[in-house]
Amino acid sequence: MVRDGEGRGLPLPGESDGPVLSGEAGGPVPPRESDGRVTLPAAQQPDWPDPAGVEAVRAELRGALPLVIPGECDLLTSRIAAVARGEAFLLQGGDCAETFAGVQADPVRAKVRTLLQMALVLTYAAAVPVVKVGRMAGQYAKPRSEATETRDGLTLPAYRGDAVNDVAFTPEARALDPRRLLRTHQAAAATLNLIRAFTTGGYADLRQAHAWNQDFVARSPVGDRYAELAIQIDQALNFMRACGIDEPVQHAVEFFVSHEGLLLDYEEPLVREDPLTGRMYSSSGHMLWIGERTRQLDGAHVEFFSRIANPIAVKLGPGTSADTVLSLIDRLDPQREPGRLTFVVRMGSELVRDRLPPLVEKAAGHGAAVTWVCDPMHGNTFKAPSGHKTRSFDAIADEVKGFFEVHHDLGTHPGGLHLEFTGGDVTECVGGGTDVLLEDLADRYESACDPRLNRTQSLDLAFLVAGMYSP
Ligand code: PEP
Ligand code: MN
User: Fold this and answer.
1) Residue ID of nearest Cα to ligand 1 atom 6
2) 96 is in an annotated binding site
3) Which residue stretches does the UniProt record annotate as biased composition, category Low complexity (predicted)?
4) What is the ipTM of this complex?
5) What is the distance between the terminal CA atoms of the chain, rounded to a whole angstrom?
6) Is the CB of 378 under 6 A from ligand 1?
7) Backbone angles phi, psi at 463, to 5 degrees
8) What domain count does the chain have?
9) Distance between CA 178 and CA 94 in Å, rounded?
10) Any known ligand binding at 420?
11) Cα gap 422→428, rounded to integer Å
């Protein structure tokens, strides 16, 4: 199901994370309390059992250290403004749902490496600067279509992300616990600290481009293709060194983090004022987005996002009307600030060519320099015979192709990709160069929520997109 412009549900194929409905999880949306926070109805909030406990957590978060600072957020806004002008490409990706157990050096490094390798392919093969944004260091909350889940006659609360409860199917694990919001902040801080180390401490040096190509990827066809590219990069670097060119940009990368700004009990207390300008910023991540299920124009999320100065994004499903897009622009980017507002389109491979053009055309006529990004994951989900939620590489590639075709026809810029991937050799999406089959899904299906591209499939996609890209 997707929510249409009026907030009613209408069924569509290939929906993921469950149906999309106004209010969600059944029943009316509760109004939020009036204490200086957003008081509009907020969809998809956990029904915490202990309101006093939530207040204590909010108070602690109000005193917590910021994870990011305004200057970094403004830098990302300026980078995304270049994307909107057609001078750069935005690559955003990571897990559907990060987990506390995943706060470990290996998985974090592997995700960073996937993004770096994809960015390198795009930068070198398509000759376009890539703005790198992880779905990392904060992606711990999930919107759900049903408040509960039933297995073998036992009904428990749905898993809402590690920020709210645990994925294990026991009453203890599924209990909603607001103190997990504090662990979320710690997990995000530790992850971001590692990311900063990996991206500035030598690991992201272009001389390491070969070393990133290890393990299972090196043994795949796309690994060979990548190795050739790394050799060419080495030669280019040798040439530059011989010419006396050695720039800091060769040794470190700019890397930003983003997540869905879903849980207002987490996001509201982490807003900080920039002492230099008096503007309010989310300190929980550089970029936040509003999900397809929480972008009601009269809802708390749009209101909250209108108050923060970070670069922000909104997911748009196939039921989105052009009027909704124009209203979102007016609410979220009234100053028409380049780089401020990104639309992440997730229509499905069968609908993108039909549904996207009127939205892009109307937005272009509305005076906003918005950035268009393609999420080819969330409109292409289906259930395998084995019961696994999966996505086919071909449908993902076809949605990206459709997205590029639409922009090519309209003379607008296909600004980027928003992906769910991991650094490991998982078997969650089918197809791609090493051809994961439906029968293989059970082998290494590790996602806590939606199926992710593995690193080979991610690189396959990067080469495909590099071929489609003509700035
Ligand atoms: C997601 O990005 O994991 C997600 C839930 O997406 P959407 O809001 O587009 O359904
Ligand atoms: Mn997802």
Assistant:
1) 291
2) yes
3) 41-50
4) 0.99
5) 35
6) yes
7) -65, -40
8) 1
9) 25
10) yes
11) 10
Residues paired with 130 in a beta bridge: 89
Is position 328 within any domain? yes
CB neighbour list of residue 10: distance below 8 Å, 6 or more residues apart: 1, 2, 4, 319
pLDDT tens digits for 49-101? 999 999 999 999 999 999 999 999 999 999 999 999 999 999 999 999 999 99
Q: Answer with the residue of higher pLDDT: 26 or 200.
A: 200
Cα 66 from chain centroid (whole Å): 20
CATH number at residue 180: 3.20.20.70
User: Which one of 232-241, 399-408, 426-435 scores highest in mean pLDDT?
Assistant: 399-408
Closest protein CA for atom 8 of ligand 1: 291
Does the annotation place 24 within a ligand binding site? Answer: no
Amino acid of residue 416: G
Decide if 42 is inside a domain.
no
Distance CA 19, CA 145 (A): 5
Residue nearest to atom 1 of ligand 1 (CA): 96
Evaluate: CB of 163 within 6 angstroms of ligand 1.
no
pLDDT digits (tens, 9 = 90+) for 348-375: 999 999 999 999 999 999 988 999 999 9
Q: What separation in angstroms does the CA of 306 have from each of 190, 334, 389, 465? A: 28, 9, 34, 33
Distance of CA 16 from the midpoint of ligand 2 (Å): 7
Quote the strand ranges of 154-273, DSSP E.
154-157, 255-260, 271-273
In the prediction, which pLDDT does 36 show?
52
431 lines ligand 1 (CB under 6 A): no
Whether 258 is in a domain gets the answer yes
| Ligand with smallest separation from the Cα of 93 | 1
- The residue to mutate among 135, 346, 374, having the most atoms of ligand 1 within 8 angstroms of its beta carbon, is 346
State in Å: Cα 17 to ligand 1 middle. Answer: 7
Tell whether residue 378 is among the known ligand binding residues: yes
Does some domain include residue 32?
Answer: no
Name which of 33-37, 102-106, 430-434 the model is least confident about: 33-37
Output the CA angle 307-146-52, nearest 5 degrees. Answer: 55
Residue 432 belongs to domain spanning = 52-468
Is 161's C-beta closer than 6 angstroms to any atom of ligand 1?
no
CA distance 372 to 415: 5
Q: If DSSP codes are grouped into helix, strand and coil, which group holds residue 109? A: helix
Say which ligand is closest to the CA of 450.
Answer: 2
Cβ(355) – ligand 1 distance below 6 Å: no
The structure tokens listed for 115 are 């993004």
375 contacts 346 by C-beta, under 8 angstroms: yes
